Here is the input.
Amino acid sequence: MKLFVYHTPERTPEHEVPDCAIAVDALRATTTMATALASGAEAIEVFADLDALQAAAAHYPATQILKAAERGGSKVEGFDLGNSPFDYTVETVAGKRILMSTTNGTRALQRIQAAPLVLAAAAINLEAVVKVLTREQPEIIWIVGAGWQGSYALEDTVCAGAIAQELKSHCEWGNDETVAALALYEQWQDHLEGLFCLSSHGQRLLRLNCREDIAYCARRSIVEAVPRQISPGVLAL
Ligand code: 3SL
Here is the structure.
């Protein structure tokens, strides 16, 4: 296996498709997706665009779906759910298809959807993601940070570094970003929550009173659920 880390979707090579592509939006989209599937959601359908989400929603019976949308960290008015993992309880999401659009995470997933194996990773499902990779042994792996509107995000890179560390003895490093991500993780592995709070998106979430969300997103390997693309833009277990 050869591992390439890209800090943002915009930095991925345009005309290449890896054997496996992993989106990381630790604060909070990929954390929330793993939580939703762990709570029994049937699937998550991702949209970069709110109008496209609303158009797709019209094709489902209203009782079968929940519409989730976040912009700038807040729930979009008129939608059922925002992007706090605490909203995705068994009572709320079990058996439902979640149609979801977030500022960066769902866009990152759309960018990598041509890969034959697409996963969503976060700190909370770290070990489970590594298990999938060691079992399936894709030759070329990309880990793509969602970033924030085209900019680097510390929390995504540190999670990419955590995956790189777990794969250390099974993988070669494909680019300098992988080495940098690993170094970031090695420096901060015992203080992930502190790093998340320090990050610019962590600061944004603190201003929105989302301290508990950050603490949850910084926990490691607490769920087994690995969102995996089953058809373009649709993730399930
Ligand atoms: O950017 C995203 O996709 C979101 O994860 C941002 S937030 O954490 O919901 O604010």
Q: What stands out?
A: The chain has a mean pLDDT of 97. The chain is about 40% helix and 20% strand. The longest helix spans residues 154-167. The radius of gyration is 16 Å.
